Amino acid sequence: MTPSEYNACVDDYADALFRFVVKNLKDRDAARDVVQDTFEKVWLKLDQVDPNKAKSYLFTTGYHTMIDKIRKEKRSTQLEDYHEDLVQTENKYSDIKKVLDKALNTLNEIQRSVIMLRDYEGYSYEEIGEITGLNESQVKVYIYRGRLALKSYLGNVSQIV
User: Which pTM does this prediction carry?
Assistant: First the structure.
């Protein structure tokens, strides 16, 4: 990949990668850091990246960078975050976007990632497998189970009202 192809890659895919990462991390600043780290990693391996597969390589690198960040943050869980789950409140939502975001948050990180890659970004099962390192069957299973969990969550009328 040449520097001009790299610049075109940044122009074409930076926004989509940012949307994908921010949906998973729920933190715009952290998502910006992940996207920047991703493009830095791609820049350092510029001679190894096939320009025809730049999008897939970019999302694969971004996905792995994001997972590393999530794992790092899980290791440094603070005491107040741990006890936050014990507090019970009743929230009623009328904004469908908030309900969908809350529903996505109930999924584990792999299910959330594959569903977002499939339904939000429009990747094929094969492309999602390349990005996440899963085989096509595993991708289909994670998407199926994630959609069942979403259906179960959203099927509860009290969550939507």
Answer: 0.55
